[in-house]
Amino acid sequence: MNFSEITIGIRVRIITGFHTGRIGIVLAKRTQTVLLDIGEPLLISEPPEHLEPAPEDPLPPGWEEVEI
User: Fold this and answer.
1) Do the domain assignments include residue 60?
2) How far, in Å, CA of 36 to CA of 50, rounded?
3) Residue 66: phi, psi to the nearest 5?
4) What is the CATH number of the domain that holds 49?
5) Residue 47 lies in a domain
6) Which among 3, 28, 33, 38 could bridge 45 via Cys, Cβ 3.0 to 4.6 Å?
């Protein structure tokens, strides 16, 4: 993904690295990376080339899908 296409609050999918396939929400843009909330107790930082746009969340606000 191009760094200029990324805005705070959009959903993105991680396509490379340890968290491949996870969907997160952009919380902040740094100089070379993007800070993401992926629904775990920690935030992760990924470079923009490891991200792609994700589809809109099909669940209503307040609901979250988790793996059991």
Assistant:
1) no
2) 12
3) -125, 155
4) 2.30.30.30
5) yes
6) 33
Beta-bridge mates of residue 56: none
Number of domains observed in the structure of the chain: 1
Instruction: Give pLDDT tens digits along the chain (68 positions).
Output: 888 889 999 999 999 989 999 999 999 998 899 999 998 899 999 999 999 999 887 777 677 777 77
Handedness of CA 19, 32, 56, 54 (dihedral sign): negative
Q: Would you say 36 and 12 are in contact if contact means Cβ atoms under 8 Å apart?
A: yes
| pLDDT for position 31 | 86
Show the domain range for 27: 3-53
pTM for this one? Answer: 0.77
